[in-house]
Write a structure and sequence with these properties.
The chain is of the alpha+beta class. The chain has a domain of 158 residues: Muramoyl-pentapeptide Carboxypeptidase, domain 2. It has five helices and six strands. The strands form two sheets. The protein has a four-stranded antiparallel sheet, with helices on both faces. A two-stranded antiparallel sheet has the order 1-2. A hairpin with a 2-residue loop joins β1 and β2. The N and C termini lie far apart (162 Å). 29% of the residues are buried.
Amino acid sequence: MTGKFFTTYALILVLLVAGCASITNDIIDNTGMASTITHTPVPTEADPSPIRTITPTATNTPTATQTVLTPTETITPTPEPEGCRQPSDDYERVIINGHHLNKRTHEMLAYAATLYEGPIDITGDAITQGSYTSAVEASFGTHAGGGAVDLSVMAPGTYIILEEDIEPLVKALRLAGFAAWYRDFDDLYPGSPVHIHAIAIGDQELSWPARQQLTGPHGYFLGFNGLPVDRGYPERDPHGGPIVCTWMVELGYPNQTATPPPE
C-alpha cells in the first residue's frame, strides 16, 4: 500500500512540473526571447489654460514739429477805417532829397505826414531810398520799380531813434495807402540800419518783388512782414495786420493779380 501511494504521488508531481513548463513555453515567442509588453501612456488632452495676449501700446515719441503760420483772413472793413483816401494816378517822376519817386508816391507821403503830425520829415529829409533803383542789393529788387520808399526814424540831425513815433508813423502810412513795416537793426543783413520800408499799394509801376510784398506768400495782405525767408515760412506782421480801405478792395486786393506787372 505504501509503495503504491508513493508511486501515485510521484506521478502527480511529474505532471505538475510538466504543466508549469508548458505554461512557460506559451509566453516565449518564436525567437526564444520573452515578450516584453510595453504600456505606452496614452496622452491625455491637457486642460486648456488661458493665454494672455500682450498688445503693444503706442508710446508717445516726441517728434520735432515746425510751426507753420497760416495767412490771416482779410475782411473788408465796414465801416471803412477813418483816414482812408484813394491816391491819384500821377506817375510823373520827381526827385526828392536826391531820390527818385513818382508823384503818386510823394502825394501819399504828404497825406501820411498830415495824419502823423510828428517831427520826422517823411516828405523830404527822412527819405533814405527811393524808387526806380537797384543800388541797395539787400532790398532784393523791391525798389527797382515805382512806389517804394525807405524812411529814417531818427530825430533830425541825430542818431537818436524816435521809438515812440514808429507805430503812429506806420499807421499813418498804412492809412495813406502804403504797406509799411519797421525794420530794426540787422533785419536785412548784419549791420543793416533801422528804417521804415513802405510800398505804395496799387502803384502800376511796382517791381515784381514789391508786388510780392503785397500779395505774395509773405505779403502784407496775408498778415506777414513782407520779408522772404529761408526757413520755409514767413513771419507775422509786427504791426497787427493790414489796414484795408474800400479803394484797395475795388482794385482787387488782396488778390495776387490786383496790381498788373510793369510793362
